[in-house]
Design a protein that fits this description.
Largest interface: A-B, 43 and 43 residues
Structural class of chain A: mainly alpha
Number of strands of chain A: 2
Shape of chain A: globular
Strand content of chain A: 5-15%
Oligomer: homodimer
Largest sheet of chain A: 2 strands, antiparallel
DNA sequence: CTCCTAACTTGTATTTTGCAAGTAACTATG
DNA sequence: CATAGTTACTTGCAAAATACAAGTTAGGAG
């Protein structure tokens, strides 16, 4: 009987930290939300190079935390990971993070058109990501 | 000769993770930005209970990352930690985090008046926190 | 049936975190 | 001005998280 450790506090910042206060969760949210990734192999192939055991552990925790769902694909070997509403609602935080990083990272990899869109149509950008994530979740797996 | 490890990628999400993708940094930003804390003992006394060695390490890293500055207090024993502009610019992300947590945490400790203000005057709330942080930085230490 | 692939698990080394004690610099007090 | 108390740390060690390499299992393709 493994039981989850008690939360350190009821502070909302702590709630967030207990969801994504680690070296990988935000990067996986990025993959799901911005890059349209859905499969184990896709997450493995991102440039930061997550190890397979860590990826498996993170996906398990994110599911337990209600950020993602597991769907069986038509190809019975594959499992599709999609964001829940709770996960999709991180879009605003994620785009704010991109804005902050673009401002303070001299070597930022934020594409110029994305930065421009952040300035021109911030709300539209967020809505686009959210609509896409909802659409992908509803779509049938490959 | 300790040299800092190379960044894993130039992705803006990764830039953010390398700044606050751990169990403590966001909580310290919260202390500095929302709770007006400035001193070592104040950070030690927060309810999550950070250990002294971790606190020292985090403060050192946050300074190296340009999120905070160290100021000597009149009392020569004390050191005042204040947010830089880069740190203060996290206010928007922090308030978005509060909003997300208040929405999804059934036991959230977000005070009702704060939630109300998030709805009624989101921009004003952020500006208030930022102005206060700037004012504290400019003020002379105790 | 055989080979291949996708999603994991297992084993072990390394790094980070957590807990309990210090310690050095400075201040307050008698 | 000696002593006690504070403040911001450091040090030593146990525990947990992370990283790297190598399996293993359930399908699917030919």
């Amino acid at each position: 009987m493994t039981m989850k450790p008690p939360r350190r506090s009821d502070c909302p910042t702590n709630f967030a930290v207990e969801h994504f206060g680690d070296r990988w969760t935000l990067l996986l949210i990025r993959d799901l939300l911005f890059h349209g990734k859905s499969y184990y192999q896709e997450f493995l192939s991102d440039e930061e190079g997550i190890s397979t055991n860590i990826l498996a552990a993170r996906l398990k925790k994110m599911e337990a935390d209600g950020l993602i769902l597991r769907q069986k694909a038509r190809d019975g070997r594959r499992i599709r990971y999609v964001l829940t509403d709770k996960g999709i609602d991180l879009a605003r935080i994620m785009v704010e993070i991109n804005r902050w990083s673009a401002k303070y990272d001299p070597d930022t990899g934020v594409p110029a058109d994305h930065s421009q869109k952040i300035k021109d149509d911030f709300e539209g950008l967020i809505t686009d990501y959210q609509r896409n994530a909802v659409a992908r979740r509803a779509a049938s797996a490959d």
